[in-house]
Amino acid sequence: MSTISESRSFTTDWLHQNHELYTAATNHTFIASIRDGTIDVINFKHWMEQDYHFVREFVRFVASVLLKVPRDSPEQDADVILGGLTALESEISWFRKEANFWQIFLEKVTPLESNKEYCEFLKELEGTETPYPVAVVAFWMIELVYNASFMSCLEEGSKTPFELLSTVKRWGSLEFHQYVHSLQQLADKALENVSEAELKKAHEVCVRILELEIKFWDMATIQTG
Ligand SMILES: Cc1ncc(CN)c(N)n1
């Protein structure tokens, strides 16, 4: 569960209502294997190859969220999203550097089915039919899964291998945790005055993201060779 915000809101309610799915997404066997130090390096490389492709698509999604921030909202709201977009530039450089270390040829990677499915979903969310409140909720949920997952690999007693610490700290840091909390606050604010239909849609999007995140981790562990 979110460790910063415990007060009641739509987003916290949805996390409680989907507790099992959330736990499956944030405590997947892939993450557990990093945490207990048993991860197979092949699985880690599979994840990295696929995630690089995902992040390239994710940039476009985040840019679309930025465009949807209502013009009459405080400037800081757009700044939060802009901060996320800027961070993705350094994330892409980080992927390239890590890929070099792991001898991964990113340009030769073919996106697998679950990755394609997730990227297709991002494209749907980018469209003008998806209103800002739904889009910002999606952005928050996507980042939350990575933050909660990788934070658990830094907990006391975890046996995360040294070579994976750079990855784990990228998404498991307190700084990123605070960023995800800012997104959650933006999401809850945006949900304050939406219709029942939009609220329902935003909740459905959260559930779908949790399912897609589970499939994404599965992809890294199920692949062979
Ligand atoms: C699949 C996935 N989900 C979330 C994130 C975090 N931006 C990511 N890099 N990849």
In short:
The chain has 225 residues and is mostly helical.
Task: Explain the overall architecture.
The chain is mainly α. It has helices spanning 10-17, 19-26, 29-35, 41-68, 75-102, 113-126, 132-152, 165-172, 174-191, 196-222. The longest helix is centred in the first third of the chain and has 28 residues, at 41-68. The chain is globular. Residues 51, 54-55, 58, 142-143, 145-146, 213, 216 line the site of 5-(aminomethyl)-2-methylpyrimidin-4-amine. The site of 5-(aminomethyl)-2-methylpyrimidin-4-amine has 10 residues, from helix 4, helix 7 and helix 10. One of its GO terms (cellular component) is cytosol. The active site is at 213 (proton donor). This is Thiaminase-2/PQQC domain-containing protein.
H-E string: HHHHHHHHHH
Compute the separation of the termini in Å.
Answer: 35 Å
> Biggest sheet, in brief?
none
Using the 3D structure, state the CATH architecture: Up-down Bundle
Secondary-structure-based class equals mainly alpha
Give the oligomer, counting copies of the same chain as homo and different chains as hetero.
Answer: single chain
Tell me how many strands there are.
0
Fourth CATH level, the homologous superfamily: Heme oxygenase-like
How many domains in all? 1
Residue share in helix: over 70%
Q: pLDDT below 50 for ≥5 consecutive residues: which ranges?
A: none
Please give the count of helices. 10
Active site: 213
Binding site for substrate: 51, 91, 143
GO cellular component, one term: cytosol
GO biological process, one term: thiamine metabolic process
